[in-house]
Amino acid sequence: MKTTQLIISSAIAGLVSLATSGLTVAQDKPAAAAKEKCYGVAKKGANDCGTAKHSCAGQAAADNTPEEWKFVAKGTCESMKGSLKKPGGTTEAPKQSY
Prior knowledge:
By secondary structure, this protein is α+β, with helices and mostly antiparallel strands. The chain has one helix spanning 2-32; strands at residues 35-39, 69-73.
């Protein structure tokens, strides 16, 4: 009888922890809306995404390379001496989430 109660209690505790962690992940998404891509401010190895030269985050070869970008708080890019425009003069269209 004790083993059965222990298994049931463990299963319930696992379900509660899964439900709680799911809520935490869902709350992180609105914070991303307050950020924007800022080109030319990423430090070596601290970029947020790939470019034509590489396909992954964290692979910037030098500091402040114009095509490397980093997410920053909305409205702070220009004060960091960065640009909201891709090199070549175009801005990216905002991505919509469905």
